[in-house]
Q: What sequence folds into this?
């Protein structure tokens, strides 16, 4: 438990750190690409953000955002980047479930699963 | 605002860059400035502003957490246990955001901002619990952290109250689109007696997960406007990265006092505009 435990904990912390970094870089790259396309297309128009309208449904649902992004619609691409960013901490929590399971820490497997359930509920169900 | 989309985007990106830079240097985070900047200066609807701010909070927290994990200060078990409270709180906060008037959100925002400014200039005293706490031991929350003299062990206490405060931090995060770092540190430093360096890094580690819980709801509600979130996220991230790089050489103390004063002024303006019903 002592030595092997410490080693695997350190390794997992390193892996989680890399996962977070990769998620943020990927998200920023996708948002930037979408942003360039967006400005190329809409840059000269005048924005209307004072009044709240809410986004159309194709920029709210996960499956629709993917469809928009795949067809390289700029706003859909930005939304996909934001979705990747939101998913990054979720992936980190999911990964922690495995990390605690490998340490046979069932208490923390359960605690982490609760957090994961809340996050998944927010992303998928609300 | 009569600017074109291009001008508007560049202005927001520039402002967000500064917010991210100052947020990283002062430890207050970029989120506390983004919402007032967008709502007061650019006249953006506060719900769009909060959505964009949440996204930037996830970006900076995840980026910083990656670096902190290496240093070995963060306590992952404390973070994960308290995330149960913050994520459930964040869900409630995001649901509340749709039900209470924007003027009320602005007033609460101002009050939380004032509190954050106050805590950033008064550092809590370093306290350590001498005797172990039963609940903390049961939850395996005690840990150790590196000091120049080697690893030092610490005991955690005040678990129920800390957990409760974390729920409040989560509600405010989901309602206002901020990291609620000030309340997280209050819970961990003052109530749970976690060493300063451990509580700040663990809090940062938790902020991304907390913000992700409410960001999903903001996305479904249509509060994430890509045209605003794009320059905010990229600007804050770039500013925070630069801030983390120059932090060791920066004169943080003076900067923190100036920034806190500026934030207090912004907070009062938010409250006034909220009371007048302009937000």
A:
């Amino acid at each position: 438990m002592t030595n092997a435990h410490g080693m695997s904990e350190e390794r997992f912390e390193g892996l989680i750190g890399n996962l977070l970094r990769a998620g943020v870089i990927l998200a920023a790259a996708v948002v930037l690409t979408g942003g360039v396309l967006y400005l190329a297309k809409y840059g000269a128009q005048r924005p209307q953000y004072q009044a709240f309208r809410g986004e159309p449904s194709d920029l709210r649902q996960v499956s629709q955002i993917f469809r928009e992004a795949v067809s390289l619609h700029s706003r859909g691409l930005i939304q996909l980047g934001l979705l990747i960013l939101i998913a990054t901490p979720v992936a980190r929590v999911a990964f922690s479930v495995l990390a605690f399971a490998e340490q046979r820490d069932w208490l923390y497997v359960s605690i982490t699963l609760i957090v994961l359930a809340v996050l998944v509920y927010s992303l998928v169900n609300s | 605002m009569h600017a074109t989309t291009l001008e508007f985007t560049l202005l927001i990106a520039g402002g967000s860059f500064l917010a991210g830079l100052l947020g990283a240097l002062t430890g207050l985070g970029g989120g506390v400035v983004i919402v007032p900047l967008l709502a007061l200066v650019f006249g953006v609807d506060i719900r769009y502003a909060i959505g964009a701010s949440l996204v930037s909070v996830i970006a900076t927290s995840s980026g910083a957490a990656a670096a902190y994990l290496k240093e070995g200060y963060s306590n992952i078990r404390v973070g994960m246990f308290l995330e149960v409270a913050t994520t459930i709180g964040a869900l409630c906060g995001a649901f509340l955001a749709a039900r209470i008037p924007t003027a009320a959100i602005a007033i609460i925002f101002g009050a939380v901002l004032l509190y954050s400014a106050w805590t950033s200039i008064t550092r809590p005293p370093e306290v350590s619990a001498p005797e172990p706490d039963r609940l903390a031991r049961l939850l395996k929350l005690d840990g150790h952290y590196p000091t120049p003299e080697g690893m030092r062990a610490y005991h955690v206490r005040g678990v129920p109250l800390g957990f409760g405060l974390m729920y409040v931090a989560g509600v405010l995060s989901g309602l206002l689109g901020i990291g609620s770092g000030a309340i997280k540190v209050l819970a961990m430093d003052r109530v749970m007696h976690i060493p300063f360096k451990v509580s700040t890094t663990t809090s940062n580690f938790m902020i991304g997960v907390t913000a992700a819980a409410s960001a999903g709801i903001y996305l479904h509600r249509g509060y994430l406007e890509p045209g605003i979130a794009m320059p905010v996220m990229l600007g804050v991230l770039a500013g925070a990265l630069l801030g983390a790089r120059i932090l060791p050489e920066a004169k943080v103390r003076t900067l923190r006092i100036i920034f806190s004063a500026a934030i207090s002024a912004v907070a009062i303006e938010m409250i006034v505009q909220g009371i007048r019903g302009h937000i």
